[in-house]
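As noted in the main text, all predictions were made from sequence alone. Below is one such record, for Universal stress protein family protein.
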Amino acid sequence: MFKDIIVGVTPTGIDACAVRAAAEFAAKFESKLYLVHVAGMEQGWGSIEHLAPSGETDQLGGKLREMYDEYLGNVPGAQIVVVPGIPHNELLRLARSKNTDLIVMGPHTQEYEERRSKMWGMAGSTLERVSQRARCPVMIVHKDVACKEPLFTNIVVATDFSDQAECAVAYGGQMARQYKANLVVMHVSEPGGEGRGECLSRLEGVYGKRLDGIPECSFRAEMGEPAMEILRTARQGDADLLIMAHHSKERDPEKAFLGSTVTQVALNAPCPTMSVNRHFDLRCGLMYDQGGQVVQAEALA
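Prediction:
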């Protein structure tokens, strides 16, 4: 399903859970795996252009290979890539050049456990910027993931009815059909907004027909603070995958329902969170029509 996977790493070891998940996915799907570290920021702007000639990038590559080697035993072709530059720019550049199907990221902060609450809404973080701009799904993993069979059994998709959320719901439908998983499509209304009954009717009207053929598909409407309600739904439903849309920076952040909510959810969720902003097809060779029948389709770039 995933043919080319990139996982962003740092020499701190904080990304171990993300590396382990990416390696298990790569082994399962016989994917190409790239562990990518972007060096330079901690050394200062003036030294970025000197990192490669000095041999420091090679030293970092060796350190990363040693640190994460235990996870790469079943992925013999895994590559360690160390490049100088700005983290989100280089991760996105490499993902485009490799036509990557999936980017996996961990919390990417050494003081993650102590500072987690302060990271909520940090729009300038590498995680935020990559999930906003990536042309492929971005999976955020902050705890160990069980690589089981089937891989996903309970999927929750959060929508705010935006164009980006349309992509997230479509991708969630593909995943649910591929894995014959339970699918919950939910929306959280702010206090004073749509009532639950009105919201449920809207969910069914907008998404019902296009999710035909998924045996266990349901809709859920909640009211309150988005991140808290999404997390509660995931825990109550024993979700093993959350899918959301991360709005682009061009959208007014005061009007965006998700946006940094993706970060809030991803860093506290009981399962991986996948950010999806564009329409793309699973590259497993199988696609499904609205009735749930298999059709052949070319993968989208």
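The longest helix spans residues 163-179. DSSP finds ten helices and twelve strands in the chain. These features were considered when defining construct boundaries for the mutagenesis experiments described in Section 2.9.
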